[in-house]
């Protein structure tokens, strides 16, 4: 990639006025094993019970079990040629209740699984008094381990954006020496923050798509050193560094976001659903937007939108546009605010 360091620019946000992902861990004195209660997008899931550590290892591809293994709450050891499993907080009648809640739909493209993993890791380490593991660099690496066990194969950008302090951050991997994620905060001026809170919105497309398949396709192309993929990754990295410079200068990089969306289509042609393309073209024709680009791997989930003007009626016009055609009936607008301090709060 020449002299361009691979980089990603992230911005922490509140969705509809709050942090959309929450979790809670509690010790149980009278029950044994691990209990899990999940509320996902307003739907309460059945209570799960893992009475033994062996059951957790048998389900290590699930997000919860991968988190428990990486957090060290369950252990696997080899004794005399046989595998033995144990709960690390084990003891007669000792258990753990884990509760998670997400206001985001499945496959949102906002990195919710990585952010949830980071939040739950912090909660578990706080509960066990393991303060050393709460350091930000350790958190990023542990979520990376979880992604591999979970078989989603995700990178470091989602937990950097959603779990690490600072509203806007640029992250990169050094090209020489130890391969590790580095990052720094990007200072944002007061006027830009006000503009962001007025002009930046999310549009839920009503469709879901997991990034796993796309990621495998991209990694295979990278391993083959396909020239088009190498050039595209370099252009994406250049865009991230350019966006950082523009933010520091007080300008939102809407044109970089547009280019980013087009570059993603090189990785996979179905990154942007045809329905979304039709809506984008209509929004541009109506002079409502400066830029719109798919979140995450694309193919579904959320569409990021940077509105054309700051007048109050622009958002109202956009909402009326969505109501005017049955093609957009499953789409709706979600409000966004910049979280400029600490996106992840551990109590």
UniProtKB/TrEMBL annotation:
Sorted alphabetically, the Gene Ontology BP terms of this entry are:
GDP-L-fucose salvage
Question: One GO molecular function term?
Answer: ATP binding
Keyword Cytoplasm in the entry? The reply is no
Q: Which Pfam families did the record assign? A: GHMP_kinases_N (PF00288)
Any keyword S-adenosyl-L-methionine?
Answer: no
SUPFAM superfamilies, A to Z = GHMP Kinase, C-terminal domain (SSF55060), Ribosomal protein S5 domain 2-like (SSF54211)
Query: Where is the signal peptide, in residue numbers?
Result: none
Lineage: superkingdom: Eukaryota
Which keywords, in A-to-Z order, does the entry hold? ATP-binding, Kinase, Nucleotide-binding, Transferase
Q: Which residues form the GHMP kinase N-terminal domain?
A: 91-160
PANTHER family recorded:
L-FUCOSE KINASE (PTHR32463)
Know the name of this protein? Answer: GHMP kinase N-terminal domain-containing protein
Species whose genome carries this gene? Meloidogyne enterolobii
């Amino acid at each position: 990639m020449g002299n361009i360091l691979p980089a990603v620019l992230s911005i922490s946000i509140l969705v509809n006025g709050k942090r959309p992902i929450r979790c809670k861990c509690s010790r149980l004195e009278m029950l044994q094993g691990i209990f899990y209660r999940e509320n996902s997008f307003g739907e309460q899931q059945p209570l799960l019970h893992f009475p033994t550590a062996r059951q957790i290892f048998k389900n290590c591809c699930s997000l919860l079990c991968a988190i428990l293994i990486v957090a060290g709450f369950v252990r696997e050891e080899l004794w005399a040629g046989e595998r033995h499993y144990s709960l690390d907080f084990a003891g007669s009648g000792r258990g753990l209740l884990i509760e998670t809640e997400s206001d985001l739909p499945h496959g949102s493209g906002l990195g919710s699984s990585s952010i949830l993993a980071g939040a739950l890791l912090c909660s578990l380490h706080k509960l066990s008094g393991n303060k050393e593991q709460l350091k930000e660099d350790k958190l990023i690496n542990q979520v990376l381990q979880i992604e591999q066990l979970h078989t989603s194969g995700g990178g470091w950008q989602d937990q950097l954006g959603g779990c690490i302090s600072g509203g806007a951050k640029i992250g990169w991997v050094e090209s020489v020496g130890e391969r590790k994620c580095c990052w720094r905060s990007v200072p944002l001026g007061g006027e830009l923050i006000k503009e962001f809170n007025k002009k930046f919105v999310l549009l839920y497309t009503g469709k879901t798509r997991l990034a796993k398949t796309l990621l495998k396709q991209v990694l295979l192309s990278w391993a083959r050193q396909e020239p088009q993929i190498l050039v595209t990754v370099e252009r994406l990295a250049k865009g991230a560094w350019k966006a950082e410079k523009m933010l520091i200068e007080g300008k939102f990089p809407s044109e970089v976001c547009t280019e980013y969306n087009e570059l993603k289509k090189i990785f996979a042609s179905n990154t942007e659903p045809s329905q979304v393309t039709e809506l984008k073209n209509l929004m541009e024709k109506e002079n409502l937007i400066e830029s719109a680009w798919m979140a995450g791997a694309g193919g579904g989930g959320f569409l990021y939108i940077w509105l054309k003007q700051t007048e109050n009626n622009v958002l109202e016009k956009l909402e009326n546009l969505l109501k005017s055609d049955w093609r957009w009936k499953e789409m709706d607008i979600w409000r966004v605010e910049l979280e400029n301090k600490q996106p992840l709060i551990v109590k």
